[in-house]
Amino acid sequence: MPRATAAPLAYRCSECGWRTAKWVGRCGECQQWGTVLESTERPSLARAVQSIAVAEDRRALPIGQIRTDDALHWPSGIAEFDRVLGGGIVPGAAILLSGEPGVGKSTLLLEVASRAAASGQRVLYVTAEESVGQVRLRAERTGGLQDLLYLAAETDLATILGHIDEVKPKLLIVDSVQTVASGNVDGLAGGPSQVREVAATLIRVAKEKNLPVLLVGHVTKDGSIAGPRLLEHLVDVVCTFDGDRQTALRFVRALKNRFGPTDEVGCFEMNGVGLAEVADPSGLFLSRTATAVSGTCATVAMEGRRALPVEVQALVVSTSAPQPRRVTNGVDSSRVAMLLAVLERRAGVRLSQYDVYVSTVGGVRLTEPAADLAIAIAVASAARDVPVASHLVAVGEISLAGEIRPVSLAGQRRSEADRMGFSTFLDHRSGTAQDALAAAFNSETRTPPTRQRALRGV
Q1: This prediction's pTM
Q2: Sign of dihedral through CA atoms 137, 139, 141, 146?
Q3: In which region does residue 87 sit, left (phi positive, over 0), alpha (psi from -120 to 50) or beta (all else)?
Q4: Using an 8 Å Cβ cutoff, are 384 and 426 in contact?
Q5: Most exposed among 41, 52, 227, 410, judged by the fewest C-beta atoms under 10 Å?
């Protein structure tokens, strides 16, 4: 009786490479819809893999005998970028930088390339989207012309590998990985198979030559990195470069980092000559008014490990509409709606007949519950038309019962508030939201900062 043979796996997921014998609408591995396509590869019979002799330089060694001299970080010359990477660039590392079009990815990496070339490192910058003349014009504007910075406009992977062999760089930048194509794979540049092949080849070269590679990645309309999900697994570091188009601030965050933490944030400011580092952005999110204005309250938010004082502003306007407006900018709208309900039910602040507008200063976005207390105080201040003292800062999460809950990294938040000159620190020790409002509008709380030093920790 003939033995049954397994059916060939004729369908493959374009995202993760999962295979199946018949078409399905959803991948069984990555759970993505519409990514299982008919494979053009011929199924091959499984063959036994024969062992081969291991070369002397590739023998397995006890972990204690492994040298780490070649795996140490070297600074890129941009302190904010090094902070996110965990201290600098690691030789042989593959770093993926993604972001929306026009946010400044190419400008940042050109600055990294020029700083590295200025320090004596030979750098190869491969642009697959612009001409070398366009890149040179940007380098002239940003002051990045260096003799050791080599430019090449190429979209063919094999030609890029030839440039690497010829230039022998210490740093390789490819802008971008979605616009490079390999002749060994069918399909247009940017397709899942092409991106997978290009990224895998460049990462293999990076490991073999101990060459750090910086890859620029496009993003889709929902903000995720374009191409197969496998791309994020192949690289060592995944960074996002984002910012509000209405402001000049840009932030670099690490989503994955095999060589350092993933909770650091680098801050930059876009100006006429490129990107400028913002080593201390604490004062960027506070207003500069000389007199106290109702509807404002400061809080201390955490961007990674960095504490940033942020001012929350609120405006309360009477309305005759049956449905009052609730408009937010920089804060979660559903969170604000919950806080308005708590203020009306637990603290006696009537808001059902008023339009409420809540915003942050400087375009920063507050996503953590630690900003609840500051939002509540700002709204109450606007509703009562009574200003809060400029030296007061509020940090705390408000529950539906009106209680103020403690938040993480309270000591670091308090230290930053002290450094910025805030003398009154309201937190969970205030008790309830009603107690915190009473303390915020207390005549003693609104005394000058010199007298308020003794009242810290109300």
Answers
A1: 0.71
A2: negative
A3: left
A4: no
A5: 52
Closest CA to 217 of 351, 101, 370, 355: 101
So what's the pLDDT on residue 454?
32
Paired tokens of 247:
């402001």
For a pLDDT cut of 70, what percent of the chain falls above it? 90
The three-state DSSP-derived secondary structure of the chain is CCCCCCCCCCEEECCCCCEECCCCCECCCCCCECCEEECCCCCCCCCCCCCCCCCHHHCCCCHHHCCCHHHCCECCCCHHHHHHHCCCECCCCEEEEEECCCCCHHHHHHHHHHHHHHCCCCEEEEECCCCHHHHHHHHHHHCCCCCCEEEEECCEHHHHHHHHHHHCCCEEEEECHHHCECCCCCCCCCCHHHHHHHHHHHHHHHHHHCCCEEEEECECCCCCECCCCHHHHHCCEEEEEECCCCCCEEEEEEEEECCCCCCCEEEEEEECCEEEECCCHHHHHCCCCCCCCCCEEEEEEEECCEEEEEEEEEEEEECCCCCCCEEEECECHHHHHHHHHHHHHHCCCCCCCEEEEEEECCCCCECCHHHHHHHHHHHHHHHHCCCCCCCEEECCEECCCCEEECCCCHHHHHHHHHHCCCCEEECHHHCEHHHHHHHHCCCCCCCCHHHHHHHCCC
pLDDT in the model for residue 69: 63
Alpha carbon distance 387, 354 (integer Å)? 18
Sign, CA torsion 81/84/88/94: negative
Which long-range CB contacts under 8 A does 336-344 form with residues at least 24 apart? Answer: 336/375, 338/400, 339/372, 339/375, 339/376, 339/379, 339/398, 340/379, 342/376, 342/398, 342/399, 342/400, 342/402, 342/433, 343/376, 343/379, 343/380, 343/433
Residue burial 378-397, b: 16+ Cβ < 10 Å; e: rest: bbbbbbeeebbbbbbbbbbb
Q: pLDDT tens digit string along 339-375?
A: 999 999 999 999 999 999 999 988 788 989 999 999 9
Close Cβ partners of 291 (under 8 Å, ≥ 6 residues apart): none
Euclidean distance between CA atoms 208 and 158, whole angstroms = 16
For the stretch 272-320, pLDDT in tens is 788 888 877 777 788 767 677 899 999 999 987 788 899 999 999 999 8
Q: Residues 312, 316, 321, 324: is their CA dihedral positive or negative?
A: positive
